[in-house]
Design a protein that fits this description.
5 helices
């Protein structure tokens, strides 16, 4: 059977439980309540909602390029192909898997 990765249900079924637990799916009511209780200037600090995160992963604006490890640390390289890139969704994936992000560097951007 061919999977259609344009449908949220297919992604829901593919994602491991640790991602779904770390990035929960909220109802419209829960999302509206969260936005109503948070000042607009603080919206960028709100936790990811699963379907919003999924949209950002599907239309991310970056491609995996590679990585290099140094003991317990790693440098991850992505190729940013469009602005705005949706790198925050990737960072959430890293944090959800237990990775601490200790720095970021964007040498090719002005």
């Amino acid at each position: 059977m061919k999977m259609d990765l344009n449908h949220d249900d297919e992604w829901r079924d593919l994602m491991p439980s640790w991602i779904k637990e770390s990035i929960p799916e909220l109802t419209k009511e829960q999302s509206h309540k969260l936005l109503a209780e948070t000042t607009q200037s603080q919206w960028d600090s709100l936790p990811w909602e699963f379907l919003s995160w999924l949209d950002a992963i599907r239309d991310r604006g970056w491609l995996w390029w590679g990585y290099r490890t140094f003991g317990s640390e790693a440098i991850i390289v992505v190729n940013i192909g469009m602005i705005p890139e949706r790198i925050d969704a990737f960072k959430q994936l890293l944090r959800s898997s237990g990775i601490d992000i200790i720095g970021e560097n964007y040498p090719g951007l002005p």
